[in-house]
Structure formats: C-alpha cells, structure tokens
C-alpha cells in the first residue's frame, strides 16, 4: 500500500479513490488490542466519518492475523474501578457509529476483542485461514465489547452460546455457514476482495448507503412496526436527493450513473 498516514499502531491508506484502508500494525503482538490501538482506531474512524471524500472503509490486520484479542498484560492487575474508568466503550463507539460502510478483511486469528472488532463492520470477508472466537471464558472473563450481543444477533443463541461458553475457535468455512462472515476467499485474495467490494460501494449513492446502514442498525433494537416506519421515512427522504434523480435517469438512458452524494 502507498500514500500511508501513520498513526502509531494504525495505518490509513488513501491510495484507492474514495476508499480508506485501515490496517492494524502491531505484528509482534499479533495485533493484540491494547489501549493505544483502541485510541488510534477511534481517532481514525472519527476522522473518516467526517471525510466526505471517503465513501467506504476496509478494516484489516494484514495478511497473517486480524487481531488475536485484547492485550491481557494491560488487564492482568486491573481492578473493576480501573476498567470502568478506562471507558473503552467510547473507542468502540467511534467505529460502531461510523456512517460509512465498513468491510472487515480477516486473515488468521480474530479472537476476543478481535472478533468483536470484526463484528463492528458491516461486511466480513474472511480468508480460509481465519479463525473466529470468544475465548475470554478460558481466562476467567467474558466478552466485554459486544460478544454477547452482536454475536447473538449474527448467528443466534445456540451458536453464540457454544462459542462464548466453551471458547471454541470457529474456522472460516464454519463461520460462513452460521452467518458470522459474508464471504470466504483464498488468504491472498482477502484484502483485494475487500478493496474491490469497497470500490463497488464507493460508486454507489453515498446518502442512500448511509441511510441503509442507519436504518438497518437502529432497527435491531426496535419493534418491527417501528423499524418499518423508519425504513419508509428514510426511503421517502431519498426522493429529495440529486442522486435519486441521477440513478433513475441513467437507468432509463442506459448509461453509468455518476453519484455526488447530494
């Protein structure tokens, strides 16, 4: 990758038009998520949320590992009060609340906080070497960044309970079968596939993409009728956009649309 902006343990690559590739770069610790990485990720995603030139984001840990969990050295002697005062939820929220489509490109381990980080994305592309898991139980803990919530919503109670209660690792093919990942590729193709998909998303109307993400995520927490109302209102809102007019006109004229996010 070229044209890199270095942010401590995070690299942000802007070399592909309208796309940001966010890479965790702490290979000596298998990209274990220490406090600094969480801060750097939050800063990067906050910046990208307000960057109108970026229409889609790829999140990766590189070719060998996504993130092998939280950095246990930082937790070994921590008290409940110390953990509370760290307010790590603020760092996670920067990713969860990002309005841009996020594609996670996962090779190798995505364990504990790494699995939770992948689940903060909208689409997960996994290499065949990928393994997902919530093994916190094996060190006397439990997931603390969405593992008991997002995982249940993704794969259902019985698959989630097996993963959380036993700490079992789930290979990529099984993760695909149970609905945890969107697509499985050869390891060498994981990041290129994610970037290609991001390019396709970046060519879509940005306001419509953002409305789709907002409605879909918010509707998880409301009754069906409320979700349908939110969907309908957002659908109606899009009729005031220039992109809607461009999309329909280009379809009728049998040409490629040019969307401007207006």
UniProtKB/TrEMBL annotation:
Domain of life of the native organism: Bacteria
Entry's InterPro entries?
ClpP/crotonase-like_dom_sf, Enoyl-CoA_hyd/isom_CS, Enoyl-CoA_hydra/iso, Enoyl-CoA_hydra_C
Note the PROSITE patterns from the entry.
ENOYL_COA_HYDRATASE
Protein's UniProt keywords contain Transport:
no
Presence of keyword Iron-sulfur = no
Q: Which UniProt keywords apply?
A: Lyase
> Record's Pfam families?
ECH_1
**PANTHER family assigned:** ENOYL-COA HYDRATASE, MITOCHONDRIAL (PTHR11941:SF54), ENOYL-COA HYDRATASE-RELATED (PTHR11941)
Concerning its family, UniProt says:
Belongs to the enoyl-CoA hydratase/isomerase family.
Q: Identify this protein by name.
A: Enoyl-CoA hydratase
């Amino acid at each position: 990758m070229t044209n890199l902006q270095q942010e401590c343990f995070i690299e942000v690559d802007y070399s592909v038009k309208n796309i940001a590739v966010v890479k965790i770069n702490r290979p000596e610790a298998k990209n274990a998520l220490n406090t600094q990485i969480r801060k750097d990720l939050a800063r990067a995603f906050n910046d990208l949320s307000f960057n109108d030139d970026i229409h889609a984001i790829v999140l990766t840990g590189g070719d060998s590992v996504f993130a092998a969990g939280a950095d246990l050295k930082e937790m070994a002697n921590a008290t409940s009060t110390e953990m509370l005062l760290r307010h790590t939820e603020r760092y996670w929220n920067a990713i969860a609340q990002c309005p841009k489509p996020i594609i996670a490109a996962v090779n190798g381990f995505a364990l504990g906080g790494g699995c939770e980080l992948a689940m903060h994305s909208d689409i997960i592309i996994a290499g065949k070497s990928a393994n997902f898991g919530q093994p916190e139980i094996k060190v006397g803990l439990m997931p603390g960044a969405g593992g008991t919530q997002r995982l249940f919503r993704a794969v259902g109670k019985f698959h989630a309970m097996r993963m959380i209660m036993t700490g079992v690792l789930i290979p990529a093919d099984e993760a695909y079968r149970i609905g945890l990942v969107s697509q499985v590729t050869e390891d060498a193709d994981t990041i290129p596939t994610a970037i290609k998909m991001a390019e396709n998303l970046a060519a879509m109307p940005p306001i419509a993409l953002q409305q789709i993400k907002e409605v879909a995520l918010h509707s998880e927490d409301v009754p069906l009728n409320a979700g349908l109302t939110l969907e309908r209102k957002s659908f109606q809102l899009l009729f005031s956009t220039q992109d809607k007019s461009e999309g329909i006109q280009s379809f009728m004229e049998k040409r490629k649309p040019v969307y401007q996010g207006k």
